[in-house]
Specification:
Rossmann fold, 3 domains, 5-stranded parallel beta sheet, 33% helix
């Protein structure tokens, strides 16, 4: 029986995938896996039984990745599962920034009590809320992953010119992009030429605050900046100055804090990017499936700290081994198996950074003593029998 701890409310469509092999609920003791959305985990004590964490969403800033890697705990996310929900909100953000709809609605609701005068007051006052159209404007998309690519394609279908920048663009992501999307040779080139700029990159030590005073200094005057990725990508003091100077005409963000909320020319959305029924279902389904495939078969897909690694099952017994990514490890493992008259039928080895991961299918008696011997090899982190 596999035990799954639910740290957040998870869509039933994901939970219903779990078979009779699974028990799941909040605060379950000694869990094999954790399903989480936004619950902060960095101060949690990770139980010794824990083998994997599945984040029903893309961002993993709430999960202690380094600590998990040290303990051999696989961390999954669900890239693309909420992409359409975020994309629609990005498009809405552009329209809200262009047409002063929020201000207009607020003003119109203030006319309550004016009775028959309302239609005339509306006609006289509407000129204060004139805007611009997005047709023919240039959108710069920074980051062309699952979300950035469909934002780019949708913007193009609405008549916008689109320029994208992503130095790590994968072949798969490139295949999703419209051929009409211009590839910027540099980030500065994109920032200097676009009327709208939308950010779709992860927040890490290299990207935190990367939209700063230097970057604002090369942007077109009156640019609209949209941030539906992570709040820390934009340096707040630099942003406030750019707004005050008119460099940025409007900042639309899904990650407001108090400083942002009280700043003029900001549309602060309360983290609604993935808050659609469809997104929550898609994320829960993908997270549950990845977690089950790992716990039952050892296969890894969409992990942020382990390599992609998958081996079809042939009905044989298999072990999975996580080890430090140092030379000679496979030789030590296979020699130990051979010494115990274990015949390897199939195996796969993949690495990512300091982590290496192996799936080995075999014939022979995999007993507890042999597992202890493998575990005792210097550099081995975890061993599982499946």
């Amino acid at each position: 029986m596999y035990r799954i701890d639910l740290l957040n409310k998870i869509s039933k469509k994901g939970l219903n995938l779990f078979t009779e092999k699974y028990e799941y609920r909040a605060d379950i003791p000694d869990p094999d896996g954790i399903l989480v959305r936004s619950k902060e985990m960095k101060e949690m004590t990770l139980p010794s039984s824990l083998k994997a964490i599945a984040r029903a969403g893309a961002g993993v800033n709430n999960i202690p990745i380094d600590k998990c890697s040290e303990k051999g705990i696989v961390v999954f996310n669900t890239p693309g599962a909420n992409a359409n929900g975020v994309k629609e909100l990005v498009i809405l953000g552009m329209l809200l920034a262009s047409r002063k709809v929020v201000e207009g609605i607020t003003w119109a609701k203030g006319l309550v009590g004016e009775g028959d005068k309302v239609p005339d007051l509306i006609e006289k006052g509407k000129s204060k809320f004139g805007g611009t159209e997005i047709l023919g404007k240039t959108l710069g998309v920074v980051g062309l992953g699952a979300i950035g690519a469909i934002v780019a394609n949708t913007a193009e279908s609405l008549g916008m010119e689109v320029m994208g920048y992503d130095p790590f663009l994968s072949i798969e992501a490139a295949g999703r992009l419209s051929r009409n999307t211009k590839k910027a040779p540099s980030l500065d080139k994109l920032l200097s030429e676009c009327d709208f700029i939308t950010l779709h990159v992860p927040q890490n030590k290299d990207t935190k605050g990367f939209i700063n005073a230097d970057k604002f200094s090369i942007m077109k005057k009156g640019v609209v900046l949209l941030n539906f990725a992570r709040g820390g990508l934009v340096d707040t003091p630099s942003l406030k100055k750019a707004l005050a100077d008119g460099v940025v005409s409007c900042y639309v963000t899904d990650f407001p804090d108090e400083e942002i909320i009280k700043t003029d020319k900001v549309i602060a959305i309360p983290h609604l990017g993935a808050s659609t029924e469809e997104s929550e279902e898609n994320c829960a389904i993908m997270a549950a499936m990845q977690l089950m495939d790992f716990l039952e078969n050892g296969n890894i897909k969409n992990s942020v700290n382990f390599p992609e690694c998958s081996l079809d099952r042939s009905g044989k017994q298999r072990i999975t081994v996580t080890n430090q990514n140092t030379s000679g490890m496979i030789e030590k493992i296979t020699h130990l198996l051979a010494d115990n008259k274990i015949n390897i039928e199939d195996m796969i080895n993949k690495s990512k950074g300091n982590i290496a991961y192996n799936i080995i299918e075999m014939e022979g008696d995999i007993n507890a003593d042999l597992i202890k011997k493998i575990q005792s090899i210097d550099g081995i982190i975890t061993v599982r029998v499946l």
